[in-house]
Specification:
heterodimer; A: alpha+beta; B: alpha+beta; six-stranded antiparallel sheet
Chain lengths: 571, 191
């Protein structure tokens, strides 16, 4: 680029904030220290103040450098741990990998509608994931792309990925998304035509369809290997909703391509679904209201078909399915997304004369004149957030961060930031989310948790208060003999911290003691409004999330955050 | 013949519920009949239907044979099998589960017609064949004066010899069946 637009003068933001200038910064406004606070919109200002408090706004960032690089990171001061090694020095980018537009038969908004809202609500990255379908494979997958490209240009401080909501053969849905580039549309299109369960009539839970799903994951890995696209990720969506993602299928995807199939939604979207009628849909939080069916995994209990504190049962159950995957010592990360189709209490309706089967998309939405109180979703960024520790503000860094498991999730802005470090007492070695701390057998290890409490109101205009933080620890017991196992008998809540304050930063330290065998730890926190004894009993989880009540689940009164795990591997 | 089962390869519980009602109407099944759905997970997973007749019920063999002849269904009655083998096998599984009272989701059973609107658990046990309630997602057992919001859709299941209704708490003193009448359909069908 050749135009000259140094960042040392003030910007006219009504003309948009230009990025990617030569010799200057390609940072979003919130991160660009040349843009004064006074010029930021409220969302960017909030984003910046969090970064500033976390010690992430400064010379290193302004230069657009890679914080994962040790030399650069060492120069970045960390307020929370002055003098500590800078292992946590990532830029935490909030995002959502599950969003539907007018190119989904059951949704209605323009790409631009979602991106503008996501941007205003503070998201840094998002994935457009319209449903795989015959029409989408033929029309939508191509036609949505110019809309996405235009949205990228119009919103330079939001990374907009193109993806697909894959009907996983024999199973639930999943997000598949690619790094932008020439290959993104052809690759997604070929994948959808070859492996989508709806397109291929392969939704039934047969061994052949299960094999087709694995072939699909392998196809994605091969596409990266052959550089058809720079990168691809696959995450399972609403995994317990209908009981049709069996444990062996999840293990199968993960083990086929662990760098591609990296995780699942810890919390599904549709979080407004349980708001009571008549002012809400009066349905189920997450739209989790199913029962066992012929295609469901027979081992799943009825409890698995509902959400717990807004989270999927696989994640919410301490010692449950997620823990059984982690106890194998293999990566499997959780996320939280909006699954936005139709926004609760919005006024838009599909445009008149819409004909999805013929056109592959709905006509642009129009003003409907009334509040859509029966709709179940929130805008991206409004309620559910997936925070990814990225080395820089780029598509590649977001994908790398997700793949690395540097991810924590929250609902309703329960906290503004969390830094989790597992530290050896030698004062040198430390690991953060998704990583493994290698220590000598018997070395003493501490878990150091630093939480930025909610630094302002959420999008329901109240300041959420974190009441409690739980440390969950489990033994790593290696590969399972039963691929359908979904319990981890040696995982439990080992420590609960009462927070006792509502502003600023809190720090907790949990000494794991001398570690003689491999373990992992993960965190969970809550506003403390709704709790219950966990499914595996009070000795495992005395105050866990409660099952959400059909027709009466106010999502703002039951907020949780979860982090991904850190492992310790003594040798 | 006190029991039989029919497997039409129904793909969903809703479809199997329709088959139950077709059987009740088509065969003229009497009061006191218990008709259940069973998840058959061999081959292409599907749902079969079993029927247990009350003592002294008039014979239905002839009408059942006619019913089976006019439709692509498998039938099992004791050791007898009718229709395509894979469906007759499914029917046999369903009949065995029902006879043992170990599995089966009851659509028709004594008292089901009275379970509409909101009823107390005392009434539930008094008027219907349901003998046990299991609370999902909570430890509190409902008292006899507590109420059940039926949503006009009460589907208890055989479990260890008891016709057991899974319920969840709605609010203090009010419960609802775990199974909802119209669960959110899967978006995979939108193709």
């Amino acid at each position: 680029m050749s135009h000259h637009h140094p960042h040392s003068h003030s910007h006219d933001h009504s003309h948009g904030h230009d990025h990617g200038h030569e010799g200057g910064s390609d940072l979003p406004a919130a991160l660009d220290t040349n843009v004064p606070d006074a010029e930021l919109n409220p969302a960017d200002l909030s984003r910046r103040s969090m970064l500033r408090r976390a010690g992430l706004l400064g010379a290193g960032l302004a230069a657009g450098s890679v914080l994962g690089n040790a030399a650069t990171a060492a120069a970045t001061p960390r307020i929370a741990h002055p003098g500590r090694p800078p292992r946590g020095g990532y830029r935490w980018l909030a995002g959502d990998h599950h969003i539907h537009t007018q190119y989904s038969s059951d949704a209605k908004y323009r790409v631009a509608d979602h991106v503008r809202h996501a941007n205003a609500y503070g998201l840094d990255w998002m994935v457009i994931t319209d449903h795989g379908s015959v029409q989408h494979a033929k029309i939508g997958v191509e036609k949505v792309n110019p809309d996405i490209v235009a949205a990228r240009d119009a919103n330079p401080d939001t990374l907009v990925f193109q993806g697909l909501e894959w009907n996983i053969p024999a199973a639930e849905h999943g997000t598949v998304f690619v790094h932008p580039g020439k290959g993104e549309v052809p690759l997604l299109k070929e994948f959808e035509n070859s492996f989508d369960g709806a397109v291929k009539n392969a939704t039934a839970g047969t061994p052949a369809n299960e094999a087709l799903a694995i072939a699909g994951v392998n196809f994605l890995a091969d596409a990266v290997r052959r550089r058809r696209v720079q990168d691809v990720l696959f995450l399972a969506n609403h995994p317990a909703r209908k009981g049709i993602d069996s444990p062996h299928e999840i293990r199968g995807w993960r083990d086929a391509q662990p760098r591609i199939a990296v995780g699942m939604e810890g919390a599904p979207g549709h979080q407004a679904g349980g708001i009571p009628a008549p002012h809400g849909p009066g349905s189920a939080r997450g739209l989790y209201d199913n029962s066992p069916s012929p295609d469901s995994f027979p081992g799943y209990p009825l409890e698995s078909y509902r959400t717990w504190g807004g989270f999927d049962w696989m994640t919410a159950t301490v010692g449950g399915l997620w823990d059984s995957l982690l106890a194998e010592g293999k990566p499997w990360w959780i996320t939280a997304n909006s699954d936005s189709h139709n926004i609760y209490a919005d006024t838009a309706v599909r445009g008149p004369g819409t004909d999805f089967p013929a056109n592959g998309h709905h006509n642009d939405p129009v003003y409907g004149g009334d509040l859509n109180l029966g709709d179940t979703d929130f805008w991206p960024g409004y309620y559910s957030r997936t925070h990814v520790g990225a080395c820089d503000f780029s598509y590649a860094a977001v994908m790398d961060g997700i793949r690395a498991g540097r991810v924590w999730v929250d609902h309703g802005g329960l906290i503004s930031g969390v830094d989790v470090q597992l530290r050896a007492r030698n004062g040198r070695d430390s690991a953060t989310l998704g990583e493994t701390l290698h220590v000598r057998r018997g070395a003493a290890v501490d878990l150091v948790i630093t939480i930025d409490l909610a630094n302002g109101p959420n999008w329901a205009q109240f300041v959420p208060v974190l009441a409690r933080v739980d440390v969950i620890q489990g033994d790593v017991t290696g590969a399972v003999s039963d691929r359908d196992a979904f319990t981890a008998p040696n995982t439990k809540v080992v420590k609960s911290f009462e927070v006792g304050k509502s502003t600023g930063t809190v720090q907790f330290t949990y000494p794991l003691g001398q570690v003689g065998s491999p373990v992992y730890v993960r965190l969970r926190g809550t506003d403390g409004n709704r709790t219950a004894v966990g499914a595996r009993g009070p000795a495992i989880d005395p105050v866990g999330p409660a099952m959400d009540v059909l027709g009466s689940a106010d999502p703002w009164k039951d907020l949780w955050f979860y982090t991904n795990p850190i492992w310790v591997l003594p040798a | 013949m006190s029991s039989f089962a029919v497997d039409a390869g129904s793909s969903s519980l809703g479809e199997a519920d329709h088959l139950v009602h077709d059987l009740v109407a088509g065969l003229g099944l009497p009061e006191g009949t218990v008709a259940c759905t069973h998840l058959i997970r061999t081959g292409t997973a599907h749902v079969a239907v079993s029927v247990r007749l009350p003592p002294g019920a008039p014979a239905v063999e002839e009408r059942l044979t006619t019913f089976a002849r006019t439709r692509p269904v498998g039938v099992a009655t004791g050791t007898r099998r009718l229709g395509p083998a894979h469906l007759a096998d499914g029917a046999a599984v369903a009949e065995a589960q029902h006879t043992a009272r170990q599995a089966g989701r009851a659509v028709i059973y004594p008292g089901v017609a009275a379970l509409t609107g909101t009823v107390s658990f005392e009434e539930l046990f008094a008027v219907s064949a349901i003998t046990r309630v299991a609370v999902i997602g909570g430890a509190d057992q409902p008292g006899r004066q507590d109420r059940l919001l039926t949503r006009d859709h009460v589907r208890p299941e055989w479990h260890d010899g008891d016709l057991t209704l899974a319920v969840t708490a709605v609010e203090r003193g009010l419960y609802a069946p775990f199974e909802v009448p119209n669960p959110t359909p899967c978006c995979a069908d939108h193709a």
